[in-house]
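ok so I'm stuck.
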Amino acid sequence: MPQKSIRLAIDMSVIAVNPLTGVGVYSLNLFKAFLKREPAFEVRLFASSARPVREHLDQLVPGCSCARIVRWPTRLKSRLWTSVDWPPIEWFTGNVDAAYGGFHLLPATRRALRTVMVFDVAWMHFPHVNTPQHNAQSTRFITHAVRHADAVFAISENTKQDLINLFKAEPEKVHVICGGINLDEFARPLDEEALATSKQRHGIPGPYFIYIGNLEPRKNLPRTLEAYARVRNRFKDAPTFVLVGRPAWMFEPVFDAAARLSLEDHVVFTGFIPHSEKMTLLRGACACVYPSLYEGFGLPVLEAMAAGVPVLTSNVSSLPEVIGDTGLTVDPENVEAIETGMIELLEHQEAAVMRAKAAFERAKGFTWDHSAAALAAAFRRLVP
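replied:
not stuck anymore, here's the structure
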């Protein structure tokens, strides 16, 4: 029996930028998979920005029935949608059955059902990881979304529970749509020549630990570097530590820690690098070290699992949901615990490899196709 058509407006303003953050990577890959597997949906794309970048939006446009990209400052749109629920997204997309907000901001609609994706509420647990202005805005967005949405999508079970416990969301209205990976990306053998070229470009001399993500307070990098310095005091031939990601906000303590701990010759900051090079460096690493204070999901951990790389991560927030028992988990606020985890990776490499093999099998359960199927199922339950 053919499935009925559902008209869906999606606000993809979060990918009208370059480079993409983790939120943008999630949104782009989720809807690439959604458009590929869900032909019964008539998807209408909307994006707004003071200076919209089309590079990533153009990957979705061919699969959409229409696309409207407008020069509309995000700050103005956010204020209007959260204060007066105006203007309706249908002004830009035409009439639809449901509307999807890509990043915490619930779209205003005329008649369509209203839905929104929530990634994390880290600032509720760790206010210091962002600015007071950001914290106030994020609280306003999610309070409004929980109060007015017909459905809220959460990127993990942990985020769902945070919405229920901290924002009094109705449990039956919150649907978990996990992050994913493209398994094909890890099916090909590692390009050893590309790896050698990348290591030479960034001055990586030999084996290395890797961290992937923005340089920002939530990522817990000063403590991680302190733990790494302790490891180097015990193991003079310890792997280099490669940090892949752009300085985002409040990043100065990361560089200060590297200098204070005399790690300049042992830590490599690559800055932003293209996705393909990032995945090459990840696949060539001896371990992924990611003891974040809080994650809504933790895509870099899942990517490391799919790459077959041993993982050291945190025992808090959503990260245990992703890694299960296939990696080392530690208290991210305990430097000694992070140090012990790194030493475990170095001294028990055979066990680390066995865990990495189990992690690869676990990663197969987190694909963008699975995520897109879950999102489609949620909309089919919502739309009468």
